[in-house]
Amino acid sequence: MPAHGLHFLWRNPRVADQFRTGVSLHSHTMHSEENMAFLPRYAHHIPGVSQTIRKHEATFRSHYGKELDYSRAWWTPPLPALDAESLERRQIQDLLQLPALVSLTDHDSITAGLNLHVMSPSSVAPISTEWTVPLGESFIHLGIHNLPAAEATAWMDHFRSWTASPNPDRLAELLAALHDIPEVLTVFNHPLWDEGLAGRDIHRQMVSRFLDRYGRWIHALELNGLRPWSENREVVVLAAARLLPIISGGDRHGREPNANVNLTRAASFSEFVAEVRQDQLSHVLFLPQYNGSLKLRCLETMADTLRDYPEYPGRVQWSDRIFFRQDNGEVANLTSLWRGAGPGIVRNFVTLLRVLEYRRVRNTLRHALAGRREYAS
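Below the sequence we write its predicted structure tokens.
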């Protein structure tokens, strides 16, 4: 029977005292390709933005004689692996006074973890990824943590091969094989988020069918630091019904460190995995930023992705970090495609979000949204 602790630092500031290590799970770096296929589905629900996007789509259709394929575009978070790991590590060390373990999980990539090992051969950073798993007309995300270094690249080849040609029986084989590696942790990330916009009921039915067939090889369900508490609370109920532990996952993309972490008495990541898998023990701690306005936090993340980073040559401007695959197969970023500052509406939108870089503006928004805390206690 799973045994978990659900903790909130603003309610118990000394909760970390009884633990040995803080664990940051599920965050993203510059190696994470964030597909933009979702953009029209979400943007068309926003008054004003919808009309503008439809206008640009019509212009593209008229000029090129075909629809604009958003699935050929993606953006990348700003931080390289070392800076992302340092950000997460510092928060745990400074806020909780604990040593830190950090698992970076870029979308369908292990480059961040491999780079950390190249830069520091003695690195104990786990090699992890967030695997996008298509299911019918939608998809889910699985956090695959702590792949064996010697086999990690081969595992990524397996994942890509399956994603290109999904097969239910083959998926069972892959998840069972991962389960047979004792140090690997397989987490169902934000399980109740209908990210593919299939519809709330359809998505939950899909999740139920997935867990019916593959749940024996899933080690925990994630409480996500960028999802609302109402949804996370439902995940707690789902985990209890499925006899699975809950686990943290901050899902950081910008410069705000993860809003939740795990607390453990383990000294290494493999020991932590054993604690979750074998003992079914997991202590999730939500940090103060989670108790703020989720809308403001998401806006701040967007501002982080659109600001300039002079310290990262070749990736200074936000348009350097958004890519498009052209008809000839070549990939180019928006800076080279636009050969300029880009469409006026885009420039205006970026300028508006960059106002959030000013502390006075952020503080004003925090005050205005103070009554919209994510977890009211």
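The first strand starts at residue 3 and ends at 8.
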